[in-house]
Write a structure and sequence with these properties.
The chain is α/β, with parallel strands linked by helices and about 200 residues long. The protein has one domain: Rossmann fold (3-Layer(aba) Sandwich), CATH 3.40.50. The chain contains 7 helices and 6 strands; from the N terminus they run E-H-E-H-H-E-H-E-H-E-E-H-H. The radius of gyration is 16 Å and the shape is globular. The two termini are about 15 Å apart.
Length: about 200
């Protein structure tokens, strides 16, 4: 069921190389091994991505964003990808400010090319210090971004991965999430559905 041409982009919306970084990397590794596909990875650690200024340069000129920071790298990877997996730590019951900033800055990408994200498949993973600390709210926000940009949101389905991957770190970083067996089941179910649908869509084109 694989395709050597299919590209899945994983993004860790954490400013640290800790739990979310670990989970997204593991998810991409799983996708590569099981489906023999190409994966790319972007993380915020050491990167500079500024807030959207709402200056409307992108709307007026259709030439992308006026800011030339590390978001330039993200734009290129988003356009290349067939499917995207967005990971976020849970901050105050929802997604991280870093991932929200990336979402806001995608306005420039879509203003330049309205089809840049259209009909691409997307899914989310939320990592919380508490077992029930806002993971589903974070995933719903990710799904909202996907819908607004005419993407196709998926999850791992009922019985364990209702809105996507939900992982518990116990505030122990990579060590904590590595021990969350049930959490990783939800991640892998979500990755299965993400790749399955991306392959199906490619066959219909």
């Amino acid at each position: 069921m694989g395709s050597s041409e299919l590209r899945v982009l994983g993004i860790s919306g954490s400013p640290r190389k800790a739990a979310t970084d670990f989970v997204v990397r593991k998810a991409l590794e799983y996708a590569e091994k099981k489906y023999k596909i190409k994966t790319d990875y972007f993380h915020f650690y050491g990167k500079k991505i500024n807030f959207c200024l709402h200056c409307d340069y992108c709307i007026r000129t259709k030439k992308g964003c006026i800011q030339k920071d590390d978001m330039v790298e993200v734009y290129a990877e988003l356009e290349e990808a067939d499917a995207m997996l967005f990971g976020t730590p849970v901050y105050n019951g929802t997604l991280s400010g870093q991932l929200k900033t990336l979402f806001d800055r995608c306005r420039a990408l879509v203003a330049k090319n309205p089809k840049a994200l259209k009909n691409k498949v997307g899914a989310g993973i939320a990592v919380g210090g508490d077992r029930l600390g806002g993971q589903e709210f974070a995933l719903l926000t990710i799904h909202s971004f996907l819908l607004i940009n005419k993407m196709i949101p998926v999850s791992g389905g009922a019985l364990g991965a209702n809105l996507g991957g939900t992982v518990w770190s116990r505030d122990l970083g990579a060590k904590g999430v590595e021990e969350d067996v049930e959490g990783f089941k939800s991640v892998y179910k979500t990755v299965d559905r993400l790749v399955e649908l991306a392959i199906l869509l490619r066959k219909t084109r």
